[in-house]
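Handout, section B. The chain below has 198 residues.
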Amino acid sequence: MKTLLHIKSSIFGSEGQSAQLAETLISQWKLKHPAGEVVERDLVAENIPHMDQTVVTALRGGAAEHTAEHQAILQRSDELVAELKAADEVVIGLPFYNFNVPSQVKSYFDLLARAGVTFSYTENGPVGLIDDKPVYLITTRGGIYHETGIDFQIPFVKQFLGFIGLKNVEVVYAEGLAMGEIAEKALAEANAQIAAFH
């Protein structure tokens, strides 16, 4: 049975434009995989912890140093890693907040970045330990930033995903969504691109 992991990060939940476009992709995926399972992870609703000394200690410290709080963080990280490894495909909704990803996405990445678990350092540099699979990034933006030299979001996300082994990445750009008539055309183009995936 195929599994699609849907990562949501819009502060507007299912009303967010990135979440709505992701649902379009998911609907198509279900038609192709009627027996498949969609696993949803809403990073905003779940209040993923932001990186601090406690999180770092939980992920890197020895078991003897771990408190109950550390163990809870480590358990959540283990769950997120296992979920990502188990998925056959992944779709990530990426609103564009203040020139980059939502802070919840950064926190999610911080819980995924585990030496010896999702990546390892070798004599030839870092090697990702998660088996590659299709990842669809759906970025929604009020303005237009792609190919302007000031898009720091997608390069960062691709760099991180590649670092842990995920290099098969497709990006859907829905830009100009706060720019009147441009928005309608942008959404139509994004939906057309999504339609071509499955």
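Note. The chain is about 40% helix and 20% strand. Compare this with the example in section A.
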